Every structure is written in structure tokens, then in C-alpha cells.
Amino acid sequence: MKNLHWKSEKYYSAIKILALFFGTFFTLSCSFEQPQIITVSGPISDGEMGKTLHHEHLLVDFIGADSTGYHRWNKDSVVAKVLPYLLEIKQLGYKTLVECTPAYLGRDPELLKILTEKSGIQLITNTGYYSAVDAKFLPPHAFTESAEELAQRWIEESQNGIEGTGVFPGFIKIAVERKSLEAIHEKIVKAACITHKATGLTIMSHTGPAIPAIEQLEILEKNGIHSSAFIWTHAQNEPDNKKHIDAARKGAWIAFDNFSEKQLNRYVKFALEMKKEGLLQKVLFSHDAGWYRPGEPNGGEFQGFTGIDELLIPALGKNGLSQQDIHQLFVLNPAEAFKVKQRIL
Ligand SMILES: [Zn+2]
Fold it and tell me: What's the 47 CA to ligand 1 centre distance in angstroms?
């Protein structure tokens, strides 16, 4: 009897292992066959993303990696300040806002969970490190660990969630300086490449001018990754549109993401030029606005997210873009850019 019991337990374990194996295989193959978007409240299909602002911030803490932490802000005060701005864009038909604040700069998954529940706006957060601004926002281990070790931390967040919150990152956020890459930036970009290969998360890199953008695309290529895995963030800081066109032809996403009234003509001109080149499907627009700032009275002056609807979209329409083009820019492009999908050469 004892022996029989032992045997059935053994069979039971074998079945369990088989089930686990096929279960994992099935989940993995599904997740790569049916691309998903990973929001703060879980995965959605790309069709559920809807009208999107692809680069905004709800909170940014500029104090530096050595001093930042959740003690620096009160979540209730941030919610009271920020929630009306999310409800405002909901009225404008937005369904999703991509929150681009990285770790050590004020990323707060619990706060985002509260804000998404209260507003009904889908939020997307990130993994990765910000190596711009003289590496002020890098933790000490970013200097001592290899690209592989850093990637392991980001992959771990992608597989198990961020800090036990149950919130998973929906993209990789990195940052380089507005000039030729130095060793620390090359390492961060390489870590992003390793993470992309393991997770299928898109790489959004705070970049600016073309020189560091081109260098990063070269690192992607060396690592066997297609340019469509890369969002050239702050591309408006490169004055030469030919550079944007070249990168977009390779497949990179070109993000003009700091919209304000004084930029209106430039953004319209850029959209028209990209349409003429047949590259409107590689363009992303946003405000890079918001920013509850811990340490300032009541979080400082918060910038809302309505300029694109009030000024840019009407101006694009007046200058010849169709409703379908507008839909491409604010619905189809963000959904394609943030799809979890390995983009391998
Ligand atoms: Zn930003």
C-alpha cells in the first residue's frame, strides 16, 4: 500500500512536470504569436490600446538616485493633484497614457495602479535605467555590473513584476547624453538589447540629436535587433529631417514628444514631410508633460496633456492630413510601437 502510494505520487509529479512544461511552452508561444500591450493593470490586446499619449510623466523626482525613494512623496497628495488631468484626457477620448518615468527618477508602480483604477485611463510603466544628466539617476550597481547583469535585473522585473507590486513593465526606458555615446551609455544600450531579446519589450531611449540615435541603432544591429524595436525619443532636437527619414526607413520610431504651442509649425511640417515620404506610420507625437515634482510645494506647476487635441490635431487636419492619418498617429502607431514582440534581424 505504501509502495503504491509512493508510485502514484511519483506519477502525479511526472504529470505535474509535464503539465508545467507544456503550460509554459503554450504561454510563451501564445505571448509571442499574439502580441500584447502590458499595462499597469495587466496585458491587453493591441486593439484595446485606443487613442494614446505615448510619452508623458505623472511624477518626476529630480533629486538623484542617491536620495530618491517612496518617502519623498505622499501618494494621496499626488493622486489629488494628478487625477483631474487624467480625467480631462479621458473626456478627449484617450484610453492610454505611457508613463515614461524610470526607476530612480520617481517610478512608482503602486501610485500608477491607484491612478489607473481611479481614472479608467490605461497606464504603461517601464523597466531600465536613465544614464543621461551625468549619470545622476543611476544607482551605484549600474557602474559595477556588466550589461548582462543589468539586463538580468530588468528581465526579472519583466517576468516577475516590479518590487512585488504585481505591476509589470510595458517597455524599456533608457537615456543617453545628447552627444556621442560613452562607455556607460553603450553598456546601458547593450543591456536594453539583451532585455529586448529576452522579453520582446520595446526600447524607448531619451536621445535628442541624430549622432547618439545612429550610434544606438548600430548597437541594436550588432546585437541582431531590428530598428523597429527602438523609439528615437526627443527626435525634435535633431534639426535635419533627412536624419529622421533615414532612421524611419530602417524601421525606427521617430518621436516628436515635447509638443507645445510654440512648436506647432515645426510639428505640422514634420508630419507633412513624413507623410510625403510614406513614413507617417513611423511617427509618434506626445507632450512629455505633467510632472508632479516632489520637494516643491504641492508638487509644483503641473502641465496638462491637452495641447495636442486643442492645437496639433486641428492644425494637422487643416494642412491636409486625413482622419485616417490622425488615427494612424494616435491609435495605430502607439499600438504597434508598444507591442510586446521580439524584433530580430
Ligand atoms: Zn520624458
Answer: 25
pTM for the whole structure = 0.90
Distance CA 93, CA 99 (A): 18
What distance in Å separates the CA atoms of residue 288 and residue 239, rounded to the nearest whole number?
Answer: 19
From CA 308, how far away is CA 285, in angstroms rounded?
Answer: 8
Q: How far is the CA of 288 from the centre of ligand 1 (A)?
A: 5
C-beta of residue 128 within 8 angstroms of C-beta of residue 102 = yes
Domains of the chain: residue spans and CATH: 34-337 (3.20.20.140)
Torsion angle, alpha carbons of 248, 226, 200, 111, to 10: -30
pLDDT (tens place) for every residue of the chain, 345 residues total: 444 444 444 444 444 444 444 444 444 444 445 669 999 999 999 999 999 999 999 999 999 999 999 999 999 999 999 999 999 999 999 999 999 999 999 999 999 999 999 999 999 999 999 999 988 999 999 999 999 999 999 999 999 999 999 999 999 999 999 999 999 999 999 999 999 999 999 999 999 999 999 999 999 999 999 999 999 999 999 999 999 999 999 999 999 999 999 999 999 999 999 999 999 999 999 999 999 999 999 999 999 999 999 999 999 999 999 999 999 999 999 999 999 999 999
Ligand 1 center to residue 290 CA distance, Å?
Answer: 9
Asked whether 284 and 334 are in contact (CB, 8 A), the reply is: yes
Instruction: Give residue 55 CA to ligand 1 midpoint distance, Å.
Output: 6
In this structure, the number of other CB atoms found within 10 A of the CB of residue 299 comes to 19
| Alpha helices for the chain (secondary structure H) | 2-33, 75-91, 109-119, 141-144, 147-160, 183-199, 210-222, 241-250, 264-276, 307, 313-318, 323-327, 333-337
Name the β-bridge partners of 205: 174, 232
The identity of residue 101, as a single letter, is: T
